[in-house]
Amino acid sequence: INVANFRFSELSAEEINSPMKKLAFRNADLTDESFNELLKLLRYTPELLQAEFDDCALDGVGDFQPSESDIVRELGKVETLIIRRLHIPRFYSFNDLRSVYSLLEKVKRITVENSKVFLVPCEFSQRLRSLEFLDLSENLMVEEYLRNSACEGAWPSLQTLILSQNYLKSIERTGEILLTLKNLTDLDISRNSFRPMPDTCRWPPKMRFLNLSSTGIWAVKMCIPQTLEVLDVSNNNLDSFSLFLPRLRELYISRNKLKTLPDGSLFPVLLVMKIRENALSTFSKDQLGSFPKLETLEAGDNHFICSCELLSFTLGQPALSQVLPDWPDSYLCNSSPRLRGQRVQEARPSVL
């Protein structure tokens, strides 16, 4: 719909008291002026919780004047704002959104995805006092501007930050910049191109979840925070993993180059490990037994050598499906030649 020329028809507040919870615009054309008019809807939607703009175009420079929209000071009960693939033709003339700072002070969840965001001004970040979740995936963020966005006092309530597929290059600098976020627990910096990982890094003190998948890393070092409960390093170039993580409960390490399972003693409370599509050739009762609390292991689509040792172990463990949710279909023999392509569960070597 084209709402570029939208003008709101005044109604008395008694006439409409909409129970609407979510308002979504898709493939809509907007202007600065029509945005101001849309804000007038807020008086008639007191139960609105979520506003969404997908694949919209804004022909303007962010010169919003909410104060002229019948003195709209805030977004009512709106807690979630989602913007995906917003096209702004005059992108490089865009304002700093100072006029809408007060509108967003009570919003808890903001997603601005694939919309050429390269900076959240420090003053704007400081005004987002209630923000708990921020997703800036597929944008243009680099460390220099991230430092300004995550300045002292920025996003004081933020718990989850997603910076997937931006232009970050240094894990060390990224962690240091985010030290200002005292309540941050979940950080997704996947699909960035990081340089080699340093030996040590500094991170926010409450970090529990870290996603480093698809970042091109070759090794994991003590740079990884010891406070983690969930770590995702899938789709990288790791050929080993020997880092002690005392609180780790879930490890996602599929699509790497590991030839053996990590030593279970490194993860005393690990419950879940996904290590599909690596270069594993076997695993044994002793290896599995080294994980004191492991409940779920996904290790399918590896290059299993169907040796007597592996087959005797799998035949002697009828309850494997309780630990291996992808058993037996994803466990195929890669050798010997006679058994290649057969399911490990059904493979029977010759007597010799």
Automatic annotation (TrEMBL):
SUPFAM superfamilies: L domain-like (SSF52058). Signal peptide: none annotated. Its main location: membrane. InterPro entries: Leu-rich_rpt, Leu-rich_rpt_typical-subtyp, LRR_dom_sf. GO terms for cellular component: plasma membrane; receptor complex. It is found in: Membrane. One of its GO terms (molecular function) is triacyl lipopeptide binding. It is a single-pass membrane protein. The keyword Plastid does not apply. GO terms for biological process: inflammatory response; toll-like receptor signaling pathway. Keywords: Glycoprotein, Leucine-rich repeat, Membrane, Receptor, Repeat, Signal, Transmembrane, Transmembrane helix. Pfam families: LRR_6, LRR_8. PANTHER family: TOLL-LIKE RECEPTOR, TOLL-LIKE RECEPTOR 2. This is Toll-like receptor 2. It comes from Myodes glareolus (Bank vole).
